[in-house]
Every structure is written in C-alpha cells, then in structure tokens.
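--- STAGE predict ---
source: upstream dedup step, 1 unique chain passed
mode: sequence only
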Amino acid sequence: MIFHAPEPPVEIPEIALTPFLLEGAAARGGKPAFIDAATGRVLSYAAWADAVRGTAAGLAARGFGRRDVLAIYSANALEYAVAFHAASLAGGVVTTINPLYTADELRTQLADSGARFLVTMPACAAKAMEAVRGSSVQEVFVFGEAEGATPFDSLLDRRDPPAVPIDPRQDLVALPYSSGTTGLPKGVMLTHYNLVANIVQSARVLGVRESDSLLGVLPFFHIYGMVVVMNLSLHVGATVVIIPRFDLEQCLQALEKHRVTFAAVVPPIVLALAKNPTVARYDLSSLRAVFSGAAPLSAAVAQTAADRMGCDVLQGYGLTEMSPVTHTARAGDAGLNDLNRASVGPPVPNTDARIVDLTTGAELGANENGEICVRGPQMMKGYLNQPEATAAMIGTDGWLHTGDVGYADDRGRLFVVDRVKELIKYKGLQIAPAELENVLHSHPSVADAAVIPIADDEAGQVPKAFVVLKQETDSDSIMKYVADRVAPYKKLRCIEIVEQIPRSPSGKILRRILMQRTREKPTRSAP
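--- STAGE serialize ---
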C-alpha cells in the first residue's frame, strides 16, 4: 500500500536555489532576515541579497566557479546564509561541517568533498588552519579575524557576479554528510531541484509565513536547520533569531524578547520546555507552534509541552538523503493530528511512502510494522563517489530505504518505532528502544533517558536504560514503573543513573557511546 499526502501536489519551479530565494528579497528591503540574539545585530533582506551577490562576485574573482566546493565550518552566524548562498550563486557546492569536529575529522571531510575554499569562525580557526595543511583547500576565510585566515568581508565585490548556467536537476548545491543506514559518513549529493522542492513542500504544510519569527537554534550545518529554518524562512520572508548553540536560558530569553512564533527544535529541547522549571519564568505566549524532528519524541513529552506552553507541538520526519522532510503533522488540523502526539503525520505533497516487510521486502498495508521507504522530488542524487552505498540505499524501483521501522495508519499518518539496526532482539522478539524511552520520559522523576541492548546468555539481548533524574528516586521503582506498562519481554533488566545522555547536535542519542561505556564497565542484568 502506498501512502500519499492529503493535499494536492505542489508546483516545483525549475530554478536554481539562490535565484529562487533572491526573488522576494528586494521587495522586503529593510525587514530583518536574521537577528543575532546575543549581540542584537540585524541582517536585513536587502543587505543579505547585496552581500550574497557581492560575495559571489568576490568568489568568482578568485576563480571559484561551477561545481567547485566551499566548506563552511562554523556555528550559526549572520554571515552563514551569505557564505552558503554566495557559493551557490557562483555555481558552487557547499559542504557544511559540524564546528565541534576535530581537525582530523574536518580534514577527512575536506579531502572527501574536494573542498577548494573553507569558511570558518574565529573559535574554530586554529583547527581549520591545522586541517587544511596538505589538503585541496586553497584559502581559509573567517567571519571576523583570525591569524592566517582571510577576513570573509574582504570577498565583497562591487561588481555583479557572472551568470552561471545551472541545471537544477543535475547540478549539486549542498553536500552535507550522513552515515545513512550504516557505515561512515558519506557525502549526500543534493541538487538545486532537491532543495527547492523540499522548501516548497515544507512551506505548503508547516504554515510558516512572512509574519513569523523563527528560532534559529538548530545548526545550519545540519540539513534540518539548513532547509527548515534558514532557507524556508528566506523563501517565505520570515525572520530568524539566531542562537549559535543551545543554552536553555538564552533560548528562553530570545523566545520572549523577539516574540518568536515558530520554533523548529529537536526532542531534548522539547523535553526542557516540558519539564524544566526555568521555563515558567518566561513569557512564551507568542509561540504558536513547536516543531520537533531529527529524532523520536515521546508523545507524553509532546503533550506535556503543548499543555504547558499552550501551543501546537508537532512532529515531523525525514532524513538528509531526502533534503530532509518527508512527513509532518499539520498545524491546527485536528482531523490529521487527532491529538495523537506520537505520529509524525502523513507524507508531504509530491512524496510517496510505503512500509515493507523487514525480512522479505514485501509491501505491507496499514497498521503493519516494517521498514519505511520513501520517494519524491527531494530525494538525493546519491552518495558522493559511493555507487555501492547509493545502490544499497535506493532500490532499482526508485524507493529509498530509510533504515527506520514504523507503520502508517489508515489515514497515512506515520508512526516511527525505531531504527532497524537499533532494535533489541530478545529471544527472537524485537524491542524498540524508543518505545521504552517514551515510557521512561513519562515517569515524573525522569528528566531524560536512553535505552541500549546488552548481551545476555539466555535471551541474546536485553534492554538496559541510562536515566537522568530530575528528582530523587531509585532504580527499582523506575524498573517497576516500566514493567507495569509494557509486555513482560520488554521490561528493563538494569538501569544506570547518569548526569546526561550523550546526543548529537541534531538530538539523536549517541548509543554507541553508551554501548562502549557498558562494554568497558559491564553491568549485571536482572532476571
């Protein structure tokens, strides 16, 4: 059974990404496109457009052109969207890099992507200069000043950038890195058409409009922040309030001061909004929607956050290889949401989804668990220089295999159960860590939680939980709480109390760290 969006298809322009976004910038003039929450600095739409064109001309004057790669190694900043779109307008490809990467990790991505120029920020400049030694990078630019790097502002050129012919369906514009379903990070080749498609699709269903102010705490190097915040906002004419990294107090201050109306976040932030007592000190009445993606969100946490803040809390689903959005709940649509906070909603327009059997690959019907497969105009061109990995991800029938397990109800609303490779196998039965984490999050004493498999001689694997407490309790009572709410084979066999759960910048639980910790310090499971 193939599931579709409830809305009709949207028209996707055959146009390069940056000209598509520049179309409305001039008319918006002095309206803020980006505001730096920490400094109060503002970049207006007119200033952004001028800076993009001038920087594109400066890049072209240095010989940067069609299909050249520019790397951005920086936290969120006003200049981020300038660097990204200047490279795009010059005909280049942008590979975005986590500013927390070590010099070695940075060097690996620079080498794999073939980056010609690197843009960074002062705090990362030393690592950047170390990483480019012996690489293909010809020059390092910095937002501000740093020893050995060229100031980014020096790229501004008064001349118009040269016109560069772009084939939107074939030419790449973004090269973020993803591990896909397995293995090491791989360059995800996203075309101009891919990103334009997902911006138009997202605009149709998320309800973000020109009058909105968006919270810009999601990292722009991640596809979620890049498309759903930075580029979607530029398309509709909204304002992004930038926060370089997540700090709850700074986020709350920005939400209140700038009257933010739409907050695209990750589950740990929703968890904080739902349970942290600090939230009560701030006026968040401007918020009309909180949108959570990139990792599973407990339905209980979503409902608690919605009740506390008096606004919609919606879940969406996607992956880097799909630019990224494939599904989302619709704001204010009770017919679709039905107050079921566990669902990530139906597909977005122009996107098909189906569920296939984990063993046979046969297509399943509604309410049957299997692997989630998707297809649409936002689907990547493939992995850079990785034809075998591409073929493993995208079948000959054109469907992309997500590696996620879930089901769709009879309305096409998707429920994500867990990752294929993260399922715990207990005597042949499958246990989804996310299901147990959802139960743990509903416990009044639990602030955060993660579940991993541990080896067991009799069962093969059993679930172990790592729990962050917000008030004192004991492990036995938590284990009983979970056992009372799940089938007997799913009950937790041990709990470890920890200070925090390791997560990626996008909010995904870093289970490999917890599994490594367990291997180094084995724990005995309860019967």
